[in-house]
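for the writeup, i need someone to sanity check this before i put it in the appendix. the sequnce is what the collaborator sent (i think, or maybe the updated version? ugh). structure was predicted straight from it, no edits. if anything looks off just tell me and ill rerun, i have time this weekend
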Amino acid sequence: MSQQSPQEPANAQKHRTGLSRIWHAFGYSRAGLRAGWGETAFRQEAIAALVLIPAAFWIGQTWLETALLAASVVMVMVVELLNTGIETAIDRIGPEWHDLSKRAKDMGSAAVLLSLLVWAGVWLAALWSRWG
């Protein structure tokens, strides 16, 4: 009986371990951020974060409030990247209109909207508590 070697995964990252895996994962993340920068919505949110995250340290009255203010800004960017990933994957499948494709894209968009509502609520509450 001959032994068959296990099929090699298409992704070389699956074979990496330790620091090599972390280093390569960091490179993939940088590539993802670079790709996200090419999206107008993400770029606008990232530029807003350059102002809002430092402002969180000024507005926040406790470390927890500061963390919540900053996290709400970062959350919007995370959800935007995930939404862009969904849209990109759907577009990769094909350009034709399909109910399921529309549904997936609409749900991603709704997730962005909800994250923006959380961000606005957290910031309005913090501003009200500080100066209201």
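The chain is about 80% helix and 0% strand. The longest helix spans residues 99-131.
thx in advance!!
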